[in-house]
Amino acid sequence: MQTLRFTLRPRTAFGTPLAGDTLFGQLCWAIRHRFGNDWLTERLAGYTESRPFLVLSDAFPQGFLPLPTVPGAFWVQAPNADRKALKKKRWLPLEELASDFRQWQSLARNDAEAAAEILYDGVKADKVALQEITVQPHNSINRATSTTGEGMFTPYSMAQLWFHPEMRLDLYALIDDARITAQELTEALMDMGKSGYGRDASIGLGKFAIEPDAAFTGLLSATDANAWLTLAPCAPQGLGLDAAKSFYQPLTRFGRHGDAAVHSGNPFKRPLLLAKTGSVFTPQNAPENLDATRYIGQGLSGVSTSVPEAVAQGYAPVIGIRMEQA
Questions:
Q1: Residue 74, class by beta-carbon neighbours within 10 Å (0-12 exposed, 13-18 middle, 19+ buried)?
Q2: Residues 165-223: pLDDT tens digits?
């Protein structure tokens, strides 16, 4: 599969984080609207049999990947290191992928440092933030009393995720270019960016722009890799992994349908148990070309009672890493 890197520029607040599995679900709707339902159905053939036509990563700060989720014993730490400060370092610069794995935590950046490198070329700026979460009040008016009230008329608040106006995000896409081209994917992504992504897209949230040309890229994997680092939530069950050498945080995804399926009578999907982005997985019988693997996971079916043909992305793009304990 070919690897594409897109540059996203947020244009509004977001109600939903830019996660690979959620992006895939909404992108399928964008593909359906642009190319037709039959076109999408053809591309989804074999999706649950380890033949995905498309696998999406999360959107990361430009030039960074998530620091692997491993125990602290894997990192080399100075005797007087500030552990609280180290725990906030969660973004590894791409140029440091070739460095000693045990040094990665000390080479990583926290949110403010990553934002400063993207926005100000590394110059420290006051009040710089990678993203901010604000609270937006909502209410419904009871037309009988012309006020809010109790029950369905109780005022409530929803969180919104804001990025700096000049923030740039990297989105990686693995494509089977015999089934979907870079141009077709770009067009669908641009459609999604214009209409809005995620929760409250209908009232203006989740809009983003795509920089004109997507770049074909090869993420740098260690030639002597012995494990994989995931770039999206994934379903690793049944993949023959070595539990003693795999590290992850669980994620329960309570999904719901978007677009026209909201009106299907039951917009809610079955809960899915996934492994969070940044997980590290080691196969029990590691192949010699482990670094050549581009994704792991599986396509998930049976996720909806109202739309039986619906699938969920349980795949994640991966890079090969040489995991060693300090």
A1: middle
A2: 899 999 999 999 999 999 999 999 999 999 999 988 888 999 999 987 777 877 778 87
Report which of 97, 108, 102 is spatially closest to residue 74, judged by C-alpha positions. 102
Is the per-residue pLDDT at 263 higher than 80? no
CA angle 174, 178, 181 (to 5 degrees): 60
Q: pLDDT per residue over 128-171, tens digit each?
A: 788 888 888 878 888 888 888 888 778 878 888 999 889 999 99
- Residue 42: phi and psi, rounded to 5, are -65, -40
Nearest to 281 by CA among 244, 326, 315: 244
Q: What is the pLDDT of residue 127?
A: 65
Q: What is the pTM of this model?
A: 0.92
Angle between helices 182-195 and 20-35 (to 10 degrees): 100
CA 226 to chain centre: 23
* 68 close to 324: Cβ distance less than 8 angstroms: no
> Which residue type does 88 have?
K
